[in-house]
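[audit] Reproducing an earlier prediction to check determinism. Same input, same settings, fresh worker. If the tokens differ from the archived copy the diff job will pick it up downstream; this log only records the rerun itself.
[audit] input (379 residues):
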Amino acid sequence: MEFAFDEPLLRMRELGRSAGYRYAAPSAQLRDNGAIWDERLFTSLARAGVAHAAIPLAYGGLGANVLETVAVLEGFGEGSGDTGLSLAVAVHGMLCALPIALLGTPQQRDRYLGAMASGTWLGALALAELDGGATASGHDVTATRFLDGWILEGEKADVINAPNAHHFLITARTSSDRRTAFVVDRDTAGLSVAPDPAQTAVRTCRMSRVKFSDCRVGPQAVLGTPGNAAAGLVPLLAALDRTCLLAPWLGILREVVRLGRETAARRFVLSRPLAHSQSVRAALVDGQTLVEAASGLLYRAAWQLDRSEPASRRDAAAAKLFLGRAVRDVTRTVAELCGTAADGLVRRAYRDSLLLTASGGGVEVLNVVIAGPAPSRTA
């Protein structure tokens, strides 16, 4: 492997960190308390380059590759300390925008990408799409041919950004259980967004159900080739889930470890700083080691994805599994270390960490991908 964390990549990470610290961090706890989506804040992040890093230059984005976008999003997670907003930004700027850039027609790219880059239009995606609908739990959409278009019926649950979205990237079951991808505008007749449910996690990223009832769309709504979502869109979403959606968590984990060190230095037990405790020092060293190991796995997977290397799918799954466990273990350790004085970020990260590995099929799917195909039996 020839990947190296060079100066341009450090600048991309600093771009995200500075924007997160300037625009999002001051209001993170307030917005989390009230489950608030701040449209002006999102527009500011788009202008700063965080929400549109991967959108091509021709449409107003930064034209960053996956590796560079991971650096921006890691920096944003560290600077903002906002788990929910980080998820919303990554879903919009990568998982909704990049498929349109890569799979869309020239007309689709012209229609959506400029407005997405400016932050004027917000894209939405259901969590179940990250594994091709395998974990839809009864919530799914069917697409039936009519004339030269399609009739969509059904619903999607846990649609990220749905309450404020302009358009929705979805897959629907068509004939022979094949799946077709669509981009459907919010004002399409037959599409409705359910009222916001109460959320207990990632509260600054709003989610809700989206229903389709006799929702008729033309051929211009199809993304890619009809019936080919399983081979085109779904693998792309899985790869981006295991790299770009992870990236803010790497930055958040860095910040959690830093807060743990600060707390250990200023919190006293029996007239001695906690930092003098050998067990506390060992726990913080373990946390820092996990951060660096997770960083290596994540950036390696992103580097491979940019080059379409065969090992990228397995390595990306390993990065997600490792980082998910690291976030869970380190946030729990730091929360226990801080006690009642736990910083808001530490509490939020510990609360939201379960969602990290639950998406995309969860630990079971990640284990299968990492293990690879079963060896063939020989006589």
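[audit] rerun output stored. Observation attached for the diff report: Residues 165 and 185 are 9 Å apart (CA to CA).
[audit] end
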